[in-house]
Structure prediction request, 142 residues.
Amino acid sequence: MRSTYESIFIIKPTLSDEETEKVIQKMQEIITTGGGEIINVENWGKKKLAYEIKKHKRGHYVLLHLKAEGPLVKELERNYRLNDAVIKFITVKLKGDIVLQKPATAPEAKEKPAKTVDVPVAEKGKDTVSSEIAESSETVKE
Prediction:
């Protein structure tokens, strides 16, 4: 029975963009030739690592969502280990299916210009902003 998995792997940051893309393509080919289905691939790019891994302080992150059977996931992880370009990986079995959502766009945000606020400049010896805030605030009793 095919299950849904999430796999994140980190590639050495010293590789060129073409070499990095080849590593990502190789991992995708392993999934598709093994009978799995790639749901989503997110290339997160180079980011700072939380701690140094194999003398690298940065890494190129890639997220894969896939549907596969257990033996295929083991084969994918075996290839992660064999590939010198991959410095770290983790694969997690998800309980449900992946529902990809498009980022929400606010149509009214595109139509309305951003609001600007004029802040009065404080005169010498007088805190205008603090005094205006104090005058406009209400006292709340509990």
